[in-house]
Amino acid sequence: MQRMGMVIGVKPDRIAEYRRLHAAVWPEILAMISTCNIRNYSIFLKEPENLLFGYWEYHGTDFEADAAKMAADPKTRDWWDVCMPCQAPLATRKEGEWWAMMEEVFHHA
Hints:
By secondary structure, this protein is of the alpha+beta class. It has one domain (2-96): 2-Layer Sandwich (Alpha-Beta Plaits). Helices cover 35% and strands 28% of the residues. It has helices spanning 15-23, 27-35, 63-72, 74-83, and strands at 2-10, 38-46, 51-58, 87-88, 100-102. Strands 1, 2, 3, 4 and 5 form a five-stranded antiparallel sheet that branches. The relative contact order is 0.26.
C-alpha cells in the first residue's frame, strides 16, 4: 500500500459548489476510484488560503496504469469537467500534473 497526498487551490467563488459536488459524488465515480485500487480517499479544505489537500491509499501494483484507466473513463471525464473549473492548480506543480503531488515526510502508524 502506498499513501499519496496532493494539493490544489480552489477558487473562492466556487467553494460552495465544490462542497455541493462532493457531498453527492456520482456513484460511477466512487466505483471507478475503487476499481483503480484507491482506498481511504479524503479531500480537506483549508480556508482562507483556499487550498484542497487530497489523501488516498493506493493498493494496486501499477499506479500509472490505474490512473490512465481512470482518465480514459467517460464518466470520470464528465466529473472532471464539472470539478476542474472550481480548482486553481498551483503554479509550482510539475509538468503534466493538475493536482500537485506531495512527498510524504512523516508517518506514524
